[in-house]
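Structure (tokenized):
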């Protein structure tokens, strides 16, 4: 499914600067033609693929949030964040990832990595089955190894490190049995989780992380590992809702 929302850019400006000449009908025709052309090209490249399209007069975030309630996965391009975006919670991919009812994959502009392992970031105190399921299933389809990373404090004593590793290893046991052909490694990383997770496996082909639990404030998203990963990681990122199950 290809989704495109269009709206007058003037709607973001002060009232006195509105472009009153915005032609909704003409803009819709142009948008429909553009999306239809893209669908035609994709169909030619992938024979037998069914492609539905949605073109609506709406801003991207509310439109995509509504659609996310009836699809299994959303994929968005993610441009390099600018100064304003770094200082705020901006960008469509970031805002949608915080609100979506389904997993969201963001693909960074011109930074697509291939051939590396699929990385899943887990919290042993609150593991996500959906994150592990997404990582192992994608790795199984692509023939990639799986690298599971878990952040620990720099000040963690040896006994705590051993405990975290043992618990994380136990969490992986059923997934290793389910996907015996996936080469799986476990790595503990030190430091700030937001940056440590992103830098743990720089050659990753996909990073799977969870966003804050459903009902969390948007401020929780703004400071989350998932949002930080979108700004620091050079590979595609799959963000899943912690409260969802596989």
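Design, position by position:
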């Amino acid at each position: 499914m290809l989704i495109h929302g269009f709206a007058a850019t003037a709607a973001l400006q002060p009232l006195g600067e509105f472009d009153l000449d915005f032609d909704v009908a003409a803009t819709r025709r142009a948008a429909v033609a553009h999306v239809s052309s893209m669908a035609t090209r994709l169909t030619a490249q992938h024979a037998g693929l069914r492609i539905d399209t949605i073109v609506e007069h709406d801003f991207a975030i509310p439109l995509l949030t509504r659609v996310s309630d009836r699809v299994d996965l959303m994929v968005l391009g993610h441009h390099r964040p600018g100064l304003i975006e770094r200082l705020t919670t901006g960008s469509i991919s970031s805002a949608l990832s915080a609100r979506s009812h389904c997993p969201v994959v963001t693909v960074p502009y011109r930074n697509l990595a291939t051939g590396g392992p699929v990385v899943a970031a887990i919290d042993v105190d609150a593991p996500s089955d959906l994150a592990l399921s997404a990582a192992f299933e994608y790795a199984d389809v692509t023939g990639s190894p799986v690298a599971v990373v878990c952040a620990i404090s720099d000040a963690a004593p040896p006994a705590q490190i051993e405990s975290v590793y043992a618990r994380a290893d136990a969490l992986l046991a059923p997934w290793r049995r389910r996907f015996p052909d996936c080469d799986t490694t476990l790595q503990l990383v030190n430091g700030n989780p937001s940056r440590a997770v992103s830098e743990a496996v720089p050659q990753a082909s996909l990073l799977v992380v969870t966003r804050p639990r459903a009902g969390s404030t948007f401020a929780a998203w703004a400071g989350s590992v998932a949002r930080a990963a979108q700004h620091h990681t050079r590979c595609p990122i799959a963000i899943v809702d912690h409260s969802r199950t596989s």
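Reviewer-requested clarification: The chain has two domains: 1-58, 118-241. Residues 118-241 form a domain with the Rossmann fold fold (CATH 3.40.50.620).
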